[in-house]
Design brief:
The complex is a heterodimer of chains A (394) and B (92).
Chain A lengths: L1 E5 L3 H7 L10 E3 L14 H5 L8 H7 L4 E3 L3 H17 L4 E5 L2 E5 L1 H7 L2 H12 L6 E5 L2 H10 L5 E3 L5 H5 L11 H9 L5 H5 L3 H19 L16 E11 L2 H16 L8 E11 L4 E12 L2 H8 L10 E12 L14 H18 L5 E5 L11 E5 L3
Parallel strand pairs in A: 2-3, 6-7
Antiparallel strand pairs in A: 1-5, 1-6, 4-5, 8-11, 9-10, 9-11, 12-13
Helix pairs in contact in A: 1-4, 5-6
Chain B lengths: L10 E3 L1 E2 L4 E2 L2 E3 L5 E4 L2 E14 L7 E10 L4 E7 L4 E4 L4
Antiparallel strand pairs in B: 3-9, 4-5, 5-6, 6-7, 7-8, 8-9
Classes of the chains: A alpha+beta (394), B mainly beta (92).
Chain lengths: 394, 92
């Protein structure tokens, strides 16, 4: 069976962990800067007062003037989600995360471990933690498991057998089927409002009228294709962070700090000789929010220049001054047949000797004694704002 | 159950280079330094002002002096106009 664990409104719940008092008040996740002004998930109190997720910001505030907008905190959400996934992995579930708040896993292997399907799902819910109000659904197909989890109440487990699948899906609202909003609106105008009504239409007619997206939705409404769930490869845990003495908004300063972080993270012994496939840059912003961008490299590399070129331009997208910059090596790969240098680059040996010398200094004087000076604002009229020193313990 | 073995990494706090250090400065009536940290000033080489970040909650208003002490040592001192106290600073 395929199981789905769902935490509705995960981003809002993650952002509310810093201000738990808001959970009982009408609050909604604010739209991200530069995106369409649509509300994200909302609290139960906001829903009671008529605010719906996906509502226009203006409409939401007009419906409920006391609505509190909670700033998005993608880095906190990502971190909380990673903690949940690790907790599930520690309990033996090979997880396949779909998006923050929604994860699938195959139950076959763990049923024996925990003494049955229901016991295994109960264990999974406990691993997520009751504070998140998770719900579990299980079925032979992925979409059916997701639909079951959507219908379940917090802490509840809903198992749908293949025989009952069509009866279970038929009365569910069409909103459960992922598709483009205008296709859904088109179906609503045609009077198709439930999953069963969509599944009852002829497939060819749906494909002709709504295109490939409609055909896919139709296929899901009939239960979807049986597909295997593959557990993810756990991410590497090599992280370096730099906390600034004051908020930094200058892009050049941030680029220099990023370069220093990159050098430090590349020198971490845990990386060994492995190459970097995916890395993520995140920042804690002034005012409590956060920002995160990740990049997957087509060719895994450890070349400083290429890594800088891949991530540095993202710094221009920062919406506010930064208090802390964080660099994460998310995925590392083994050597994949790259062309090595015939002769070592000039200065390579000196670099090795210098590192060895610094290691000796550190060993004799202790951690924090070796620092790198990073020139951040050499044009500044304030001498102490021109350069920072960053501890090097690599 | 096997715990994850990876180390999470550390947050390194970056420090400021050339931070001002408190100094004991005696002055003339016009505010120019006569003694810096109990050493007499032999020569006043330069004087300038830095007014910055007035738009923030921590505005900067400093009157800098570059002096040569009687021992032959060069020093840069400034008076923080907001806090009415003296500091020495390198890299100015």
């Amino acid at each position: 069976m395929i199981a789905c664990i769902l935490v509705p409104g995960f981003e809002l719940r993650a952002a509310l962990r810093k201000q738990p008092g808001l959970a009982l008040r009408p609050a909604a996740l604010a739209p991200a800067a530069g995106t369409e002004p649509l509300l994200g998930p909302v609290t139960a109190e906001a829903e009671r007062l008529g605010v719906r997720p996906g509502m226009r910001l203006g409409e939401g505030l007009a419906t409920c003037p006391q609505l509190v907008l909670v700033e998005q905190d993608p880095a906190a959400a990502e971190q909380a989600w990673e903690e949940i996934l690790r907790s599930l992995e520690d309990s033996g579930f090979a997880v396949d995360p779909a998006e923050p708040g929604c994860v699938y896993f195959e139950t076959r292997g763990v049923e024996r471990l925990y003494g049955g399907l229901e016991a295994a799902l109960r264990r999974a819910l406990a691993a997520v933690g009751t504070a998140w109000d998770p719900r579990a659904g299980a079925a032979q197909r992925r979409f059916a498991a997701l639909a079951a989890a959507n219908v379940a109440r917090p802490g509840q487990i809903l198992v749908v057998s293949d025989e009952r699948l069509h009866d279970f899906l038929a009365p569910l609202p069409l909103e459960l089927v992922p598709m483009e909003p205008r296709r859904r609106a088109e179906l609503h105008e045609l009077g198709v409002k439930s999953v069963g009504q969509l599944a009852g239409l002829p497939g060819a007619a749906v494909a002709e009228r709504l295109g490939p997206d409609g055909r896919r939705a139709w296929s899901l409404a009939r239960g979807g294709k049986p597909a295997r769930v593959r557990g993810r490869r756990p991410p590497a845990e090599i992280v370096e962070a730099l906390e600034f003495p004051e908020a930094v908004g200058n892009e050049l300063t941030l680029r220099r700090a990023f370069a220093a972080l990159l050098e430090t993270v590349l020198a971490r012994p845990e990386r060994g000789d492995r190459f970097i496939r995916k890395l993520a840059l995140s920042a804690r912003l002034v005012g409590g929010g956060s920002w995160r961008r990740s990049v997957t490299l087509r060719d895994a590399t450890t070349e400083l220049g290429r890594l800088k070129a891949a991530l540095s331009p993202k710094l221009a997208e920062l919406p506010a001054p930064v208090l802390e910059l964080r660099l994460e090596l998310v995925e590392l790969t083994e050597h994949d047949g790259q062309q090595l240098e015939l002769l070592p680059a000039a200065g390579g040996e000196l670099d090795v000797r210098l590192r060895e010398g610094l290691r000796q200094v550190r060993a004799s004087t202790g951690s924090g004694s070796v620092n790198q000076v990073v020139e951040v604002a050499p044009w500044s009229r304030i001498p102490e704002a021109r350069a920072l020193f960053v501890p090097r313990d690599d | 159950m096997v715990a994850h073995s990876g180390s999470p990494g550390a947050v390194r706090a970056a420090g400021r280079l050339n931070q001002p250090r408190p100094a004991v400065v005696e002055t003339r009536v016009d505010g120019t330094p006569v003694r810096v940290n109990r050493q007499p000033v032999a020569l006043l080489r330069e004087e300038w002002r830095v007014v910055d970040r007035w738009w923030t909650e921590e505005p900067i208003a400093r009157r800098y002096f570059e002096v040569v002490l009687q021992s032959g040592e060069n020093a840069v001192v400034f008076r923080d106009e907001a806090r009415s106290c003296w500091f020495t600073q390198r890299g100015a």
